[in-house]
Design a protein that fits this description.
There is one protein chain. The protein is α+β, with helices and mostly antiparallel strands. It is built from 6 helices and 8 strands, in the order αβββαααβαββαββ. The strands form 3 sheets. It has a 3-stranded mixed sheet, with no helix packed on it. Strands 4-6-5 form a 3-stranded antiparallel sheet, with helices on one face. A hairpin with a 5-residue loop joins strand 7 and strand 8. The chain is globular, with a radius of gyration of 22 Å.
Length: about 240
């Protein structure tokens, strides 16, 4: 319904739609991806962008593609043809092979991502950070409002104090404040260690100064469970 509303708006105002669908293959729990170009009224005004780095784990090959109506492709080629060199031939052949024979690998990777998703979501909720279960991609967006820190403060301190990287939610717009984005495209061992370190970080917050606008320090609110856990507990381990 949301996508169709966007298409109606584009038709009404004669706008082009640029749809980045790089995570189209990475969906969970029976959900399916809807390509915006497949919706009524969108076919002749959509530029679809995709690539191989996510679904086929080909990060670093820098190979992607665009699909669009012929008249738009012709205009795009005028800019592209003389503005840059083509993608490496080896990468293009690798992309062809991935499309032709890579489906078993995609499904195996998706199943592994689902396991890692469960591990990190359960772990974050267990240590006191509310976290919804994402339906696609490989990121989580836990709520950190209970810490008394802004998303930038939380991410900065977590990086410097525990060497765990997170992206402040504020970089995604005002509605992202109060959250941080974390990626689970890494090993389960690293995810478990990250949850351990975050639990240790949260356990220090009740006595940690929180910067305010006037430069004074105030005490952060107490969080539920992390203060009662030891840093060495494997809080993110899934035993199912």
């Amino acid at each position: 319904a949301d996508l169709q509303a966007i298409v109606r708006l584009a038709v009404q105002h004669d706008l082009l739609l640029v749809s980045d669908e790089i995570y189209a293959r990475l969906v969970y729990d029976g959900w399916t991806h809807t390509c915006v170009a497949s919706l009524p009224g969108a076919w002749d005004r959509t530029i679809l962008l995709n690539g191989f780095s996510k679904a086929y784990a080909m990060t670093g090959w820098r190979l992607g593609y665009a699909c669009a109506p012929h008249h738009l492709v012709e205009a795009m080629m005028k800019v592209h043809q003389y503005g840059m060199l083509s993608a490496p031939t080896m990468a293009q052949y690798a992309g062809i092979e991935a499309i032709r024979n890579g489906e078993p690998d995609v499904q195996a990777m998706l199943a592994e991502y689902a396991r890692r998703r469960r591990l990190i979501v359960d772990g974050l909720n267990r240590i006191g950070l509310r976290c919804a279960r994402p339906q696609g991609a490989f990121y989580v967006f836990p709520d950190i409002t209970g810490t008394g820190l802004t998303s930038d403060q939380f991410a900065t301190r977590l990086l410097h104090e525990e060497h765990v990287a997170a992206i402040p939610g504020s970089v995604f717009g005002p509605s992202g404040e109060g959250h941080v984005r974390m990626c689970y495209a890494t090993s389960t061992a690293h995810l478990e260690e990250a949850i351990d370190r975050m639990a240790r970080f949260l356990g220090r917050l009740p006595l940690a100064p929180v910067a305010t606008g006037d430069g004074l320090g105030v005490e952060a609110p107490s969080l539920p469970s992390p203060t009662t856990r030891t840093p060495t507990e494997k809080l993110g381990r899934v035993t199912k």
